[in-house]
Amino acid sequence: MEIWAVDENGEVWGCWWDAGWHDWYRIPGMTFPQGTPLSATSRRDGSHLELFGVGADGCVYGAWFDGDNWNHPGEDGQPTYWFRRGTEKDKLPPLTPLAVQLRVVPPPSHLFAIDVFGVGTDAGIHGTRFLESWRPWYRLPVPVIKFQKPIESGGLAALGGWAGVNVCIDGSLQWYGHAHDSGADGYDFGVAFYLRSEKRMIALSHNGSVSASRPDHDWEEIHPPNGAVAGILSDLLGAEASMNMQYTSHIGQTLEGVVSLGLKWFVGSVLGDVAGGLAIFAGVELGSLIATGEFGAGAVILEEVLWMAGPGNTLLAVAAHAIAELGYDEKEIPLEAYELIDEHVFHHTLPAHEDLRITNIGGEASSGEQRPFTMSSPVGGKIRLNMGQAGFDDPIGYGVGKAGATGLPIIPYEVLVHELVHAWQIRWTGFDLSWFADATSASVEGETSYLYGPPGPEFAGGFTIEGQAQIVSDWFSEHAANATDPKAGFAQLTESKAVTDPYFRYIQDNIRLGNY
Q1: Tens digit of pLDDT for each residue in 66-112?
Q2: Terminal C-alpha separation, the chain
Q3: Which residue ranges form the domains of the chain, and what is each CATH number?
Q4: What is the spatial distance between Cα 240 and Cα 258, in angstroms, rounded to a whole number?
Q5: Which secondary-structure segment (H or E) carries 427?
Q6: 184 three-class SS
Q7: What is the pLDDT of residues 136-169, one digit of tens each?
């Protein structure tokens, strides 16, 4: 048995009992505020001790005894007694009590894991874990909406349990479950959980195995705060939960099946004729799904809806009915057109020419025509400008003479410039989930998403995705128009009228600097 305490000078002292109490000893190298509570655990045969406390700087420090010494080589190779657990940003209030737990990871690994928990200044519970190495700190989510469903295999299968999702106020998700095999056969299984609100779906998936020798399988995944989820909490209060479970020895096919079933359920029950909707897939790898019917290398047609695979395991339903065929054509952007636009409009901040493609697929517009849309494929890294058949045949002259989104006649190169702004957005935002959600919102809002107000707001926060692209294409249309020689119009973009345009600030300070 062993005990530790912090003295009036902030130093740590320990004393141990083995058929009698021994003399106190000091663990040097660190001082703590007087009265700091210390927490400890013992692993292996009791000869390996772990001791933790919160320092005056708010960081958690740990010391460990390996049966012989409390001091061990630090990063500089010098003997060190105390090690900081986390970064300088991972802080708890001084004098915070810590809870420490030791556990053994289930076989076959037989590894030891240590969990350390404390309450932060935000009143949330924060934790870190040692499992072969120390992991980053995380905040335990505080659920505001809870869903749980039983695992029911049906038939003669002896596989049961439950799974649940807790949605937290900051948009984080706790995805957990328990599977149990009560029979003699073993199962590889895949389970998917879906939360469906009016126009959004959250989907999570987990694979595992159970057998007669290892009948129980538990999981818990903490998905970090997500703005897209936090933004739909009110919708999720009335969400419907559904779960699908498949068991097979082929895990890849299982995962593909649960994702496909989820999409079918979502499309068939929610979208109908709606042309857009966002599905957030948390922890679901889409590789096997994409391989079943690919648009380039990043989409699949299900229920006559094109689902584009995005980063962060997101999918976007970009159109319904207009693109029910898997066949499509694609080609490179004409090099001369790319070079003119990249030099005179973007100042060489566009994605590389070889990373861009034009296709003959287009979304639906209220007029019945195909509306261009631009998306990125996470596999292969290509950005595709989907301009419909007319735009594919003539990307430079597409739409010329017709009224654009703001009512002005379209000039050569204008639509291509607009779609290339979306390619620029994808490059300079990293195509994250917030951009994805904004693009979805613009798709649902229709023509109004192209409108923008007077100059003044910040580029990223002040305008919609389509509004940003429309600012650039309108600036181009107004100052590059040249009826006799469209190519010569690019030189007009350096004239005084163009560079004193009140919207030129966004071209100069954002587009040309790659500053989203």
Answers
A1: 888 888 877 777 778 999 998 888 899 999 999 999 887 666 556 78
A2: 59
A3: 2-139 (2.120.10.70), 143-320 (no CATH), 336-513 (no CATH)
A4: 17
A5: helix 414-429
A6: coil
A7: 998 876 667 889 999 876 544 578 899 999 888 8
